[in-house]
Design a protein that fits this description.
The chain has about 575 residues and is α/β, with parallel strands linked by helices. The chain has 3 domains: about 1-220 and about 380-460, Ribonuclease Z/Hydroxyacylglutathione hydrolase-like (Metallo-beta-lactamase, Chain A, 4-Layer Sandwich), CATH 3.60.15.10; about 225-370, Rossmann fold (3-Layer(aba) Sandwich), CATH 3.40.50; about 465-565, Ubiquitin-like (UB roll).
Length: about 575
C-alpha cells in the first residue's frame, strides 16, 4: 500500500480536469483527519461531491466554533459539478451545506431522514426555499451526470446511514460512508450484506472506506448491550439522573427512553439539537413507540426519582445544556449532590480538556458521574478491525482507499486491506487527485485544499495570518500607541498607550508610564528627517513598546501605532 503523503513530490496542477475516461477521487476534507468530509469523484469532465461536512474548533482556535474544508477548487468549477450526495445526517458529513451551498448551487441528494434534518439547518440560514433537495428512498438508484448511484444500507449511530455504489464507465466504486456491523442496531436495519456481496460479485474497482477505528482490535460492539446496561443503571439510583450522548444517535435516545420507562421514570430533552433530531426522527417514523418527551420546564414538576434528563454537551461544549448545568447557570435545570450524570458517549480527540473540566465541575458539586470506562454505556459507530476484514471479504475491491481518519488510522487500515489480498491501495491526503482506473493507481496531481472557519458572521480562511495574529494576542496581549506630532516632527503631547490583556491599569500604572517614556525617547532619538517619515516613526514606536513590555513582563504584544500630525 502506498502513502500519497510520504511518496514522491507531486507537481500541483490548479487547472486539472477529469476530462478523460478515467475515474478520479479527490478529498478536500476528511483524509488525514476526522471530520470535515468533502469527497469528489471526477469522470468525463464532471465532478460529483459526496458529503460536505464540518468540524469544530478547539482552544487552539480562539473565537472559532465551526471549521469547514476549503472548497475553492470545486467552487471555481461549479459549472462541472453535477450534484452533492449525502451519505447520512452527521455534522461532519452535511454540516457545511448551509454555509457553502450558495457557492455551488447544485441539487442535494439524500434519504428522507437526512432531508428532514438538513431542511431544519437550512431554515436557520434562510435557505429552505433555495436548495433543491432530491429525496431518494432507502436502497434507491438514481443518476447524476455521468454517475449511476445506488444507496446501500449500512449501520451507524444515526438513522439511514448509507454506503454508495457509484457506477462509471471506468468501473464500480463503493464509497462506504460511516458504518459498522451491528447485529442488533435497535433502530434501522443491519448492513445489507447480501447487496454488498452482490456488488463484490459484480466487480468493484475501488472501495473508499472509513478508517476511524482501524487501530481498534476486535468488534465495535452492539447497541443492544448498551440498552441492557442503561436498563440496569437507571434503576440503580433514586436521585435525578441526566444522560448525555450525541444528539443524532436516535437509537440511544430510544434506549434511554425504554430504560427510563422500565424504571418508572419520564424523559425530558434538554438542548435545542435534541429537539431538532426528535422532530426529524418522528416525522420519518422513528421513535414511534416512544412517548413524547417532556420539556425541561415540565421536568421540574416531577419528583427527582421519576425523571431522566437527556442533555446536550457530551463533548464539553461551553454553551451546551450540560455545561451550563455543571456551571450552575442553566435557567431551568439544576442538579444536586448525589444526582447522577451518565456520559453515554466517547471523547472526540481534542475535546478531552473541555470534557474533563466539565466533569470536574460536576464532581466538585457532589454529583456522581458514570462514563464508558466504568460501564458499558457507549459503543462506537465505526468499524473495528474485524469488521473491516469482513467488509473487504464481501466487497473484494481491486483498490483500497482509506479515508475518514488521521494518517495513523489510514495506514493501519491499508495494512488490513493488504492482509485481505486487496491488490492495490493508496493512502490519500487532502488535495491529492487519485486516479482509480483504468491505468496505474496513483496520485496524478495535487490541488488546493485547506480550512475555512465561521468567525462571527463571516467565513474566513484559516490559512492566512488571522489565527496567527489572534494567537499572538491571546498569549502576549495587545497594545495601541497614539502619537500626535507637529509639522517639525515633535511630540505635541505625551504618547497615549493602551495595553490590553497584559497590564492591570490600576495596579501597574508605573509600568505603563515606563512604556510612555520609552516611546518618547525612541521618537526623540530619531533624526529630524526620520521624524517626518510616518513609517519610520511607527516602526520606532512599535519597537519601543514591545521592548519595554518585554523587559518588564517578558511579553511582546501585538502593537498598533496611530499617528496624527497637526
Amino acid at each position: 500500500m502506498r502513502s500519497a503523503t510520504n511518496g514522491p513530490a507531486i507537481k500541483a496542477d490548479a487547472s486539472f480536469s477529469p476530462a478523460d475516461d478515467s475515474v478520479y477521487f479527490l478529498a478536500l476534507g476528511g483524509a488525514g483527519e476526522i471530520g470535515m468530509n468533502l469527497n469528489l469523484y471526477g469522470h468525463k469532465g464532471k465532478w460529483l461531491m459526496v458529503d460536505l461536512g464540518i468540524s469544530f474548533g478547539d482552544e487552539t482556535m480562539p473565537g472559532v466554533e465551526v471549521i469547514m474544508p476549503d472548497h475553492s477548487f470545486i467552487k471555481e468549477r461549479r459549472d462541472d459539478l453535477v450534484g452533492i450526495v449525502l451519505t447520512h445526517a452527521h455534522e461532519d458529513h452535511l454540516g457545511a451545506v448551509q454555509y457553502l451551498w450558495p457557492d455551488l448551487e447544485v441539487p442535494v441528494y439524500c434519504t428522507p431522514f437526512t432531508a428532514s434534518f438538513l431542511r431544519a439547518k437550512l431554515h436557520e440560514r434562510g435557505l429552505q426555499n433555495r436548495v433543491p433537495i432530491v429525496e431518494i428512498p432507502l436502497g434507491g438508484r438514481f443518476e447524476v451526470g455521468p454517475f449511476q448511484l445506488e444507496y446501500v444500507a449500512v449501520t451507524h449511530s444515526i438513522p439511514e446511514p448509507n454506503a454508495l455504489a457509484i457506477r462509471t464507465d471506468a468501473g464500480l466504486i463503493v464509497h462506504t460512508g460511516d458504518w459498522k456491523l451491528d447485529p442488533q442496531p435497535m433502530i434501522g436495519t443491519t448492513a445489507d450484506e447480501k447487496r454488498l456481496r452482490e456488488l463484490g460479485d459484480e466487480g468493484v474497482l475501488a472501495m473508499v472506506c472509513d478508517s476511524t477505528n482501524a487501530l481498534v482490535p476486535g468488534h465495535s460492539g452492539s447497541e443492544a448491550k448498551v440498552r441492557e446496561t442503561l436498563m440496569e443503571l437507571l434503576g440503580r439510583w433514586d436521585t435525578r439522573i441526566a444522560v448525555t450522548c450525541f444528539a443524532t444517535n436516535v437509537a440511544r435516545l430510544e434506549s434511554i427512553a425504554v430504560a427510563a420507562k422500565a424504571n418508572d421514570r419520564h424523559v425530558a430533552l434538554v438542548g435545542r439539537s435534541l429537539w431538532r433530531i426528535n422532530e426529524a426522527a418522528r416525522s420519518n417514523g422513528y421513535l414511534a413507540d416512544i412517548e413524547p418527551f417532556l420539556s425541561e420546564h415540565d421536568a421540574g414538576y416531577l419528583p427527582r426519582d421519576k425523571v431522566v434528563l437527556i442533555c446536550t454537551g457530551s463533548q464539553g461544549e461551553p454553551r451546551s445544556a450540560l455545561a451550563r448545568i455543571a456551571g450552575g447557570d442553566h435557567p431551568q435545570v439544576t442538579l444536586e449532590r448525589d444526582d447522577v450524570v451518565v456520559f453515554s458517549s466517547r471523547e472526540i480527540p481534542g475535546n478531552e480538556r473541555a470534557i474533563g473540566r466539565m466533569q470536574n465541575q460536576l464532581v466538585n458539586r457532589g454529583i456522581r458521574i458514570v462514563t464508558a470506562e466504568e460501564e458499558y454505556v457507549h459503543v462506537s459507530g465505526h468499524p473495528a478491525q474485524e469488521e473491516l476484514v469482513q467488509m473487504y471479504q464481501w466487497v473484494r475491491p481491486k483498490v483500497a482507499v482509506p479515508v475518514h481518519g488521521e494518517q495513523r488510522h489510514q495506514l493501519e487500515h491499508a495494512k488490513i486491506a493488504q492482509s485481505c489480498q486487496v491488490p492495490h491501495g493508496i493512502v490519500p491526503g487532502n488535495g491529492d487527485v487519485v486516479r482509480l482506473g483504468p491505468g496505474p493507481v496513483e496520485v496524478v496531481t495535487q490541488v488546493r485544499s485547506g480550512r475555512l472557519a465561521i468567525d462571527g458572521k463571516r467565513i474566513v480562511s484559516l490559512d492566512n495570518g488571522l489565527m496567527r495574529a489572534r494567537h499572538r494576542m491571546v498569549h502576549n496581549g495587545a497594545a495601541v500607541a497614539t502619537l500626535v506630532l507637529n509639522g517639525r516632527g515633535e511630540l505635541v503631547t505625551a504618547p497615549q498607550i493602551a495595553v490590553m490583556g497584559l497590564l492591570d491599569d490600576q495596579l501597574e500604572h508605573d509600568s505603563l508610564l515606563d512604556v510612555v517614556d520609552a516611546v518618547r525617547e525612541a521618537v526623540a532619538a530619531l533624526p529630524k528627517n526620520a521624524r517626518l517619515d510616518d513609517a519610520l516613526v511607527r516602526d520606532a514606536t512599535r519597537i519601543a513598546v514591545r521592548r519595554s513590555l518585554n523587559a518588564s513582563h517578558g511579553k511582546k504584544p501585538v502593537t498598533e501605532v496611530h499617528l496624527v500630525r497637526i
